[in-house]
Each structure stands twice: as structure tokens, then as C-alpha cells.
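Dear support,

I submitted the protein below through the web form. The confirmation email said the job was done, but the results page showed an empty box. After a refresh the structure appeared. I'm attaching both so you can tell me whether what I see now is the final result or a partial one.
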Amino acid sequence: MSFDNVCKLLSEKYPESFASWVLDTPQSNVEVLKTELSIEPIRADYVTFLQLTGRILHLEFQTKLESQPPLPLRMLDYWVRLYRLYRLPVTQVVVFLMPPSPDTIIETAFHLENTHHEYRVIKMWEENPEPFLNEPALLPLAPLAATTQPRTLLQRVVERVNQLERGQKPEISAYTQILAGLKFKKNLIQQLFQEGIMRESVIYQEILSRGEQIGAQRERALVLKLLTRQVGELPQQTSARIDALSLEELENLAVALLDFETLVDLEVWLSALE
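What the results page shows now:
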């Protein structure tokens, strides 16, 4: 599934949320229109057409600036087709998911001789992340928003995903991880989302609870017990290395051990701490 197509699916599933965001005013009674336009039919794979009260909203999602035909010409073409079909004012908004190379000019209009057509552009890397963090339907876009601390933003996104209702969480989590892949490395995304899930798990909560109640010694014993169940009996030297871990390292190990399949996995994890 392409990044652009994820946005298309989200905007068609949550049209009111996307329309309210791009127009900066609350919208209701929004209808998703077909994407095949008349004359010589074209199939617009990554656009969403929404019918509002007395207006058509055309949303275009772009990962890359380059396209064929060029974006300004496409926007003019869409406008003419939409207006011919619906005879309503058309608001066009292009959402760029990632910044182009430095010094690249992002055009916001088509102009040739007497023909001039404008459309609006949203650059996700300049958007305030707060509206996205506060709206589940827009949450998958939050990792792409403006920030000086990308990892911290992604951690906040994970926290918000984990607060979603059970029925909504799997889908939003999947879309969020896909779009986060535009900006973050796969390993970091998997790590943070996995930690977020583990922090809700019974085992992780038990580890933290026991650590608070009976101290680091009992927590080490619990981690050792879980490790033995996961990878088998531990050599004395390996047990000694675990005994030397700090409380924070033990908590990290409690999360990581659920992915261990053999003793080698544990040894590799411990070696990474040296």
C-alpha cells in the first residue's frame, strides 16, 4: 500500500475530520464522491472528492513533487471536470507529505497566457502536530508534522494510539506506522510501537508493579524466570550479567525478551549494552 493511498483511504473513511482540518472550520454532512471524472475518464488514485454544503472539496495527496502530467496542469484539469459535473465552487488542496529537495519551488498555480488557476498547498512538515494528536482520524499524519524533536513526537503519537478505543486502535496504529515510515527508520517505529503495546501488557505491568513493591532484586528474579521460560535454562555467566543490570536496563530487557527465541538472542541483546 502506497503512502498516498493510505491518506486517500483515511480521508474517505473520516471525511468530516479531513474537511474540517484543511478548511479550518467544522464540517458535517460531508459526502464522498466518486473519483472517476467524465469526458475521457481518468482514475485519480490518490485524491478524494468531498461534497460539502454548496461546495466540492478536492484533496490531493502527494509524496513526491514530480508527477506526469505536472501537478498544476492536473489541478486545472480536475477543476474543470469537477465544475462541469457538479456546477459548484471547487476548493482544491494539495497535501505534501514530505519536503522536496532544498531550493525546490512548490507551485501553487497553473499559468499560461490568459489562463490562471490557483490551488492551496499544505506542507505537512510545517504543520503544528497538536491538531493531529488530538484527532484520531488525523493521527496517522502526526509523525510527519513540524517538530525539532522527531523521536519525542513519535513517542507522543504512540501514546495517543494506545489511548484509542479497542475497535479503532488496530487500524489507526497500522496506518500511523505506514506513514511514519516516510520519516523514521523501520526499527525505531517497531521499537516504539512494540514498547507502547508491552507497557499495556499484563507481564510488563506486573514487572513494574513488583519492582515498585519489592525492589530491584525481585524484579531481576522475575525477569530471569521469564527468560528461562522463553529461551531455556541460563548459563551461570549469563545470569550474573543480568544481575549486574540497572533497573532501567531490566525494564528494557523485560520488553525485549518477548521477541527472544533462543539463548543467542539474549546474548546478542546483552552484548549490545557493552
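Response: this is the final, complete result; the empty box was a page-load delay. The beta strands are 31-33, 36-37, 42-43, 47-52, 55-62, 90-96, 109-112, 115-118, 120-123.
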